[in-house]
Amino acid sequence: MLTQERKKPMAKTFNTTADCKPHLHYMVDLTSRLIQIQQMIDKGEYFTISRARQYGKTTTLRSLKRFLGSEYLTASLDFQRIGTARFENEHLFSTAFTRLFIQAVHQQVILEDAALQHAVQMLENAASDNPEFGLLELFGHLGRICGDCEKPIVLMIDETDHAASHPVFLDFLSQLRACYIDRDLAPAFQSVILAGVYDIKNLKRKIRLEQEHQQNSPWNIAADFKIDMDFSQSDVEGMLAEYEQDFHTGMNIPKIAGLLCEYTSGYPFLVSRLCQIMDETVTGSQYFADRAAAFTKEGFLEAVKQILLEKNTLFESLADKLYSYPSLKELLHAALFSGDRISFNPDNEIIGLVSMFGFVKNTDGNLAVANRIFETRLYNLFLSEEEINSRLYAAAGMDKNQFVQNGMLDMDLILEKFMHCWAELYSHSDEKFIEDNGRKFFLLYLKPIINGTGNYYIESRTRDNGRTDIIVDYHGKQYIIEIKIWRGNEYQKRGIRQLAEYLHAYHAKKGYLLSFDFNKYKKTGIREIRYGDLCILEAVV
Predict the structure, then answer these.
(1) C-beta of residue 522 within 8 angstroms of C-beta of residue 533
(2) Which of 300, 286, 284 lies closest to 5 in space, CA to CA?
(3) Contact 99, 86 (CB under 8 A)
(4) Are residues 275 and 395 in the same domain?
(5) 117 and 200: one domain?
(6) How far apart are CA 333 and CA 378, in angstroms?
(7) Same domain, 40 and 11
């Protein structure tokens, strides 16, 4: 069955490398974004599309070029095609830029536009014959081309990060700025679009000497680009609907799209990668015979498990930032394990940088990890650094087999055994130690038990200084565990009510409550709480 499906002629695929092409790949509909971008172009705005890696920038630019059609002449350049040596001085850069620009114009030029052809030929001759050809000469010819062309010209430059370390690029931007300012006096580009991870201010910081940091950016004429490039649930539903037309899996499209957005917060690469894993890896595996089985909640959770175990450039970049900036690592560790609320301050260099790379976001004025996939990846990374020396991790690893019966997880036993291990190892710890480490140590105990088969994530909507909800996925079944610090009976009752609400939301009849009590008169142990038709097992340690 699977083999026959793969032989289906002209079948599209989910793509996670380079740009997406409508005739080859399943894509979200970008029309609404493209309309908004064209409105900026129509107004003559210069701007930067600054987004994290693998966020669909190149796909957007190439789609925009097709979308603009014949209304504009669109010159689309990719700075990755300019070798590093070409950024060493004006002449080398200007001649390289000229070649790319002419190639881009020749892709769209109307043969009958003799004036434009002549202007382009003059640029080519100047770049070839003049050893002093530099930015001044280049922009003189570009202005002439803009004036002679029958259509307004849109300049799009992708991968501007490739120029990040080279001062000549700032000089290039200064020329663009000057042309923008004088465009009522001399012909200029209708619009200039730069695309990359770094915004121009960050580029300037990277290039300029320390004493020059306060100078104005050469790109201060740029309009703000506020167009949302996250995938919405409706975006994802449209992409899945196209897939469903081809393969007729019978999937619940709104449900699968909702799960994708819930775990990724609409990060384009992560959405496409999870779909790709369901389609290419989960399908035909041990528990998922075909696409109908793969595109279910259980198949999706299997894809989540696999993406969290794989290496890719996005995750490698995340880890690299942590090791390059130890203060960032400390900050995120505190936010994840201790429940510390950290104000989102974009003027903080570290926060601004990691936000630019798409790993964190502003949630109600506080710093938060950008999505559930990144967050779980961080938890796994931080925990792995402590596994070797963790007695709890070792204890759980030795007892692992007793926690799985007939393929199902015995969460009751896990809480009971954890309670005993905690009492033996940490019962005399002070309040501060418990608050900082309680959640982490339970995850260290849980991780070797579910490793390789199950997965977990932290429910960010309930995480605060007092309580945390952990969702464990194991063979398609979900276990909801609330971890909280004891704050008195009233707080306890409120926590039970909140857990009950959460169980109803997950259509679960049983939940778990792990309470860390640092009262010297505390009563440790396990009890069962009935709350309406729900059963809550509480372990007090």
Answers:
(1) no
(2) 284
(3) no
(4) no
(5) yes
(6) 8
(7) no
Structural domains of the chain, count:
3
Show the CA angle centred on residue 124, arms to residues 121 and 129, nearest 5°: 120
Burial class (CB in 10 A: 0-12, 13-18, 19+), 349: middle
**What are phi and psi for residue 249, nearest 5 degrees?**
-75, -20
Q: Are residues 11 and 42 in the same domain?
A: no
Find the helix or strand (DSSP H, E) in which 443 lies.
Answer: helix 431-450
Same domain, 40 and 189: yes
pLDDT tens digit string along 411-438?
999 999 999 888 888 777 776 777 667 7
**What is the layout of strands, in order, in the sheet containing 191-196?**
47-50, 191-196, 153-158, 73-78
pTM recorded for the entire structure: 0.89
Q: How far is Cα of residue 26 from the mean position of the Cα atoms in its chain?
A: 19
Q: Provide the 3-class DSSP secondary structure of residue 301.
A: helix
- Classify the C-alpha dihedral 217-220-223-226 as positive or negative: positive
On whether the CB atoms of residues 49 and 225 are closer than 8 A, the answer is yes
| Environment class of 1 (CB within 10 Å of its CB; exposed 0-12, middle 13-18, buried 19+) | exposed
Q: 333 in a domain, yes or no?
A: no
Instruction: Tell me the C-alpha distance between 124 and 459, whole Å.
Output: 59
Does residue 362 form part of some domain? no
pLDDT, tens only, 161-215: 999 789 999 999 999 999 999 999 999 999 999 999 987 755 554 555 444 444 4
Tell whether 181 and 36 lie within a shared domain. yes
Domain that holds residue 467: 391-541
3-class SS letters over 246-292:
HHCCCCCHHHHHHHHHHHHCCCHHHHHHHHHHHHHHHCCECCECCHH
For residue 461, give the 3-state DSSP assignment: coil
Given 277, 310, 343, which residue is the final one in a domain?
Answer: 310
Whether 511 and 500 have beta carbons less than 8 Å apart is answered as: yes
Do 192 and 248 reside in the same domain of the chain? no
How many residues are listed for the chain in this entry?
541
pLDDT tens readout for residues 385-416: 887 677 777 877 777 788 988 888 999 999 99
